[in-house]
Amino acid sequence: MAHTSGVHLLQIHPHLDSDVETDVDIIAIHGLDTKSPDTWIWKSKRPDSNNNVNWLADRSMLPSRVGQARIFTCDWPAGLFERSDLIQKRIEELARLLLDGIQRRARPLATNSYSEGDDRPIIFIASCLGGIILIKALVMADHEYRCLRRATKGIVFLATPFGGTSFQDVARWAEPGLKAWASIQGQKVSRLLQSVKGSTFNLDELVRGFTQVCRDNNLDQVMTFYETGKTNLYQKVFPYLPISSKQVRTPKAPRSRHRSSVGKDY
To answer: What's a single GO CC term here (predicted)?
Structure first.
């Protein structure tokens, strides 16, 4: 496992002791206020069922489709609440930590053409705000991290808020309650909430910068997936409040990339 100041990469396939040769790395980055493996597990709706499936690790899921690939989960400090005595990190700092954590990931044990270099191909899977952290990291990736741009061969975005609108609405509404709750717990609200409710102009500028990175590095395998059903975002923040549902708006993907919609129960 690679640890870098709150950014943790864990190889979940193949087993660390395996001598299987691999030629590509898949790195899955979770979103806001969650962690691995929770983000990547399908949970059965039956209360008495133990048939939960981690689609990144289950042999019948992603590992059965990717051949000679290593699969990592990437955890970063995404909590809505933090200790009041800690200095909070900005998105730029999180992006830099992400770059460092990815670059420091373990080299494969088996000998193959990519094991000695920094240009081992990478495919990212990024959920929600994790996608924003990722594109910020790739836009910032210069000097010692430039090799990570070259190595990135594909990205799958899952409900990443490229437009930011729905998240801004919820953040503005929820912030007073979140601050009150944090105060009671002797904590403070993460600075990430300020990033979510920030200017759409800044987000648009970031997306334009990422689009240019894609063009400059021939990164044309970029997919975005989003729900078409309604999600009660307010009750996700305060599940005990009887508030009417609010529909998630379709994320605005970078131009000339691929977009796919899925039903709510995916």
So the answer is: endoplasmic reticulum
DSSP 3-state assignment of 27?
A: strand
Nearest-angstrom CA–CA distance, 88 and 90: 7
146-184 confidence digits (pLDDT tens): 999 999 999 999 988 887 656 666 666 667 777 776 677
Alpha helices, DSSP H only, in the chain?
91-103, 129-140, 146-151, 165-184, 192-196, 200-216, 233-237
Q: Which residues contact 151 (CB under 8 A, 6 or more apart)?
A: 118, 119, 120, 121, 122
CB 30 within 8 A of CB 36: yes
**Cβ-Cβ contacts under 8 Å for 91 (sequence gap 6 or more):** 132, 133, 136, 192, 195
Yes or no: say if 251 and 224 are a contact pair by the CB < 8 Å rule. Answer: yes
Exposure string for 158-177, b = 16+ CB within 10 A, e = fewer = bbbbbbbbbbbebbebbbee
Higher per-residue confidence, 195 vs 2: 195
Residues constituting the chain: 266
Strand partners, 122: 25, 152
The pLDDT of 116-130, averaged and rounded, is: 84
Q: Hey, which CATH number is domain 2-262, 3.30.950, 3.90.1010, 1.10.3470, 3.40.50?
A: 3.40.50
The Cβ of residue 131 has, within 10 Å, a number of other Cβ atoms equal to 25
How many contiguous H segments (helices) and E segments (strands) does the chain have? 7, 12
Question: Quick one: tokens of 117?
Answer: 């270099």
Cα distance between residue 55 and residue 108, in whole Å: 22
pTM: 0.81
